[in-house]
Every structure is written in structure tokens, then in C-alpha cells.
Amino acid sequence: MTATKAPGADRYLPAERGLDALRAAAECCRGCQLFADATQTVFGRGRAGAPIMLVGEQPGDREDRAGEPFVGPAGRLLDRALEEAGIDPACTYETNAVKHFKFTRKGGKRRIHQKPGRTEVVACRPWLIAEIEAVRPRVIVCLGATAAQSLLGAAFRVSAERGRQLRLPAALADVEPEPVVVATVHPSAVLRDRSDRHDEAYRLFVDDLRSASSGVVTGP
Ligand code: URA
Ligand code: SF4
């Protein structure tokens, strides 16, 4: 068989499904082409049992270098919003729909973020599902369309369903108790909104985080 088509992450998943084993195995994932140009796999951060899972799109330039999710500007906005929403960081598990940074180069050096395609999102989804099964969160907050469409289908529209309490498709994950899934905007979208609606966009984002986490124990 010729290795022409990337087969997705499934065959890189380890038999042991604890977070440490998953993280170690994900370092060697070649489930799509994105591993080739990125610095490293950026796996999720947090503990098994964290009640709130936050799912972004993919690592950015800073995350790619650091090897950790949400350490750049979007992460700082997210941290601030979580604090204002009354969510203890110890209660969150932060990860991304896609674990390698996708970019183009501009002017030689600068790396410009490129949105991952459906093929990459689907290829990488086994890692996200395995994280959900290992962490067993009460609530999964999808930050933006990429995360939401990974878990809720390509037709999902954040603008239409933002803030609603949804369920994971049964075929996707086997988790008990079943988590609630809520979609909101991506913190980068709030960051980029420099219009006079910026403050409102930020406030709505905080409101979504707060209502998604209400009823969830937020003490460590
Ligand atoms: N944006 C994301 O979606 N994830 C990160 O980890 C950082 C920025
Ligand atoms: Fe594997 Fe995901 Fe990286 Fe693609 S983006 S190589 S599927 S970890």
C-alpha cells in the first residue's frame, strides 16, 4: 500500500487512554500533513476530572513554540474572561480541535495563521474525543466554529446556536455522565473586534462562559 492519503489520528491512539499516555502518543501523530511544518504537537492542559473543558481551534504561533494551548494573546483574553465569569482555572481543561499549528509564511519569516480545513479537523478529532473520555467534563465549551463543527457537525452555526445547551452526537463519544456542550465565539474574534461593539462582544463572551459553567462545581 502506498502512503498517499493521511489516514487520520486513529491509528496513533495508544491502548492506554490516560491523559499522560495520550499526550505522549500525540507527540508522534502523523494523522494529517500539519505535523510536517509545525514545531510540535500542542496537547491539552489540565487534569482528568476538570468539570469544564474549553476547546479552541488550533494552536497559534506562540502555542506552537511553547507546546501549550492558549498562552498567546487569545489565551490572555480567555484567562481574563474566565476570571470575570468566576471560573477557577483549576476547574478547566483547555485544548484545541486541531493539535498542530497550520500557517503560511509571509515575507520569509512571519507565520500567518491559516484556518484548518474539514479534513484536518476530522483527522484530529480522535484526540479530542479521547480527551473528552479521559477528562469526563461536565461542560464542554466550544470556542468558535472550528471546535463546534468538530463536535456538532459541519453544518453547525455558532451564530444561530450560541449559548444553547446541546449534547454530543452519541456516535462520537461514550462518556458517562453525559457532558453538556455549549458553543460560543472564539476569544480571537473578540480580540480582533476593534469596532465600537468590542466591549459588548467581550461582555457577551463572559456571559456565555458564566452561564455555561453555572451549576457546575467550580471549586478545585
Ligand atoms: N487559539 C486557539 O484556538 N487555541 C490556542 O491554543 C490559541 C489560540
Ligand atoms: Fe495528528 Fe492532529 Fe497533528 Fe494532524 S493536526 S498530525 S491529526 S495531531
UniProtKB/TrEMBL annotation:
It comes from the Bacteria. Gene3D superfamilies: Uracil-DNA glycosylase-like domain. The keyword Ribonucleoprotein does not apply. The keyword Cell membrane does not apply. GO terms for molecular function: 4 iron, 4 sulfur cluster binding; deaminated base DNA N-glycosylase activity; metal ion binding. GO terms for biological process: DNA repair. Residues 43-210 form the Uracil-DNA glycosylase-like domain. InterPro entries: UDG_Type-4/5, Ura-DNA_glyco_family4, Uracil-DNA_glycosylase-like, Uracil-DNA_glycosylase-like_sf. Keywords: 4Fe-4S, DNA damage, DNA repair, Glycosidase, Hydrolase, Iron, Iron-sulfur, Metal-binding. NCBIfam families: UDG_fam4, UDG_fam_dom. Belongs to the uracil-DNA glycosylase (UDG) superfamily. Type 4 (UDGa) family. This is Type-4 uracil-DNA glycosylase.
